[in-house]
Amino acid sequence: MAASIRPCPSCGTKNRVPAAAAGRPRCATCKADLPWLVEATDSDLAEALDTAQVVLVDLWAPWCGPCRMVAPVLESLAVTYAGSLKVVKVNVDEAPAAAARFQAQSIPTLVVLKDGEVVERVVGAQPEPVLNRIVTAALAR
After folding, report:
1. How many whole angstroms separate alpha carbon 65 and alpha carbon 116?
2. What is the pTM of this model?
3. What are the helix (H) ranges across the chain?
4. 68-125: per-residue pLDDT in tens?
5. Is there a catalytic annotation at residue 67?
6. What is the spatial distance between Cα 108 and Cα 105, in angstroms, rounded to a whole number?
7. What is the CA radius of gyration of the chain?
8. Which 3 state secondary structure label does DSSP give 17?
């Protein structure tokens, strides 16, 4: 599972953000919480989901237009809820076991997990206010 390089929204410092870690990623310079948006496959999905944070799993495919429309919304949510939310993107073409696990019969399928349990499931592209409400409700549980 590879780490990604992401700029800190607070100070702009580029940070290595691990795909799996205890705790949550923080900026090396200003110590602000970093957006946690990672990619996972069948082989490393369990590691990516192993967190105390609320997890939003995005089951998508590169050829899916609605999936590409929802991607910037998920990035925005990762920034808005940095420190509280982890977004895990799973390409269903490359991770059929994950697609089966979450019963993704249509994409995009978004699954919200809290403490490893599914608390919400959304099929199809939704606007940011709808997804924002879903994440807010999951965080409040």
Report:
1. 29
2. 0.93
3. 45-49, 65-80, 96-101, 128-140
4. 999 999 999 999 999 999 999 999 999 999 999 999 999 999 999 999 999 999 999 9
5. yes
6. 9
7. 14
8. strand
